[in-house]
Amino acid sequence: MRCLMLVDEPLKHSCSLLVVGMHENGDQSALVKALDRKLGGALKRLREQHEFMGGLGRTKIMHTFGKLPAERILLVGLGKADELTPERLRQAAGSAMQAIKQAGVRIFSSALHQQPLKSALQCVAEGFLLARHTFFRYKTRKEENGGVEEGTFLVTASALGRSETVAAETRQICEAVCFARDLVAQPGNVATPEFLADRALEIAGKYGIKSRILERREIEAEGMGAFLAVAKGSHQPPYLILLEYRGAGIKKRPVALVGKGVTFDSGGISLKPREGMEKMKNDMGGAAAVMGTFMAAAALRLPVNLVGIIPSAENMPGGGACKPGDVVTSMSGQTIEITNTDAEGRMLLCDGLHLAQRYRPSVIIDVATLTGACVVALGHTASGLMGNDDALKRDLRRAGEATGERLWELPLWDEYDDIIKSDIADMKNAAGPHAGTISAACFLKKFAGSSRWAHLDIAGTAWEERGRPYVPKGATGVGVRLLVEYLRGIK
Length: 491
Ligand code: BES
Ligand code: MN
Ligand code: ZN
Description:
The chain is α/β, with parallel strands linked by helices.
């Protein structure tokens, strides 16, 4: 969708559909009052007849019958005036886009961003762009509606320059989110480790990111025994994807991003139950988030240095698969007893975290669809946050609040270390049924060394079951906006 900025006044602007935000209570904006006057009190009557009250996300399309240059008005509820937040505005814009799609409108104009919030334009553009996205690659009959083509944002002359910058940046970020969504949505027979590596090379070439792909031989040479154990049961060879983006001077230590790239998680010999196993194609959501973040960071030329590490493999129960009870040696030299082959994410991440140290990063952040227990604890509303550094966790939480990709912390007290003790090796990869999200993070902590490190468990947030205003059903691309916001805040 093209996003255009235009200096014009909503009530003098000629278009086929104009999007206007309306509050649920209290004083309406000057625009809504003027609009109501032009429409002869129609908005007031809608409210009195309980047809449209301005509840958050409610929409209503009205014809103007020549009473103003806009042919139709799309009213969007913003909820109570004093409760308006960036996230609510994003949601309202998402609902507006759904109404626009449903009405088959291809070109529209917006006054929705004319709200007293600093980030209003960004939020509205995000809501529109993210709600518009669909994944229909495998539908042979393409959608009859080719999609919404163009949105024109009405701005004041003094805001024009700034608005154009904000819109351009927002579109780069949303493209990266949609890139991540598409990767996650791809089925496992297409999105193999090799496919991920190819996409990484592609974006690296396009955005001027340094990249390197290590094959099995080279991964062996690095001694990544934990990572390799995951790939043993599959015919798909593993790949280690390395990305480097330099936006700051050489002296500035990089942020290392480590993403779980399990392109399908059958559980391996500790096979998962059949119900819902098809969802496990999304087990590379962390990898997609890291790749999307690189894409956005490079497109925005963020003044930071980044290292990306994506161990990618398929977890299958083939004849060569690792078995419960096997012991392997990780790259760090620490030995691991594999008590459950379904706890594979931490196996490939631990070698990724160890490798990250080589780059002397200022911080390491890993992103992974790591535990079902995280879905039990937090549902689909927040990602789990754990780590060894309070300032880093605080910055990430703040980015989560700002973007609506919320994080909630779980503790990593020393007492939890006991549950991954092994009788035969330095640790085991899976503990009992309790504190599953924490025990996974305790395991990872042992590979972060003395680095400042945070772990994001996105098992519950990488996939949207029902569809929310600006997150259509399916892959969410979670992590991209969060990490970009975090990186933007780095000094
Ligand atoms: N990829 C799964 C976690 C997952 C579950 C992600 C549900 C998204 C939705 C992970 O590899 C896994 O299987 N974890 C196990 C760990 C257990 C064996 C210790 C789990 O959560 O059951
Ligand atoms: Mn698993
Ligand atoms: Zn997994």
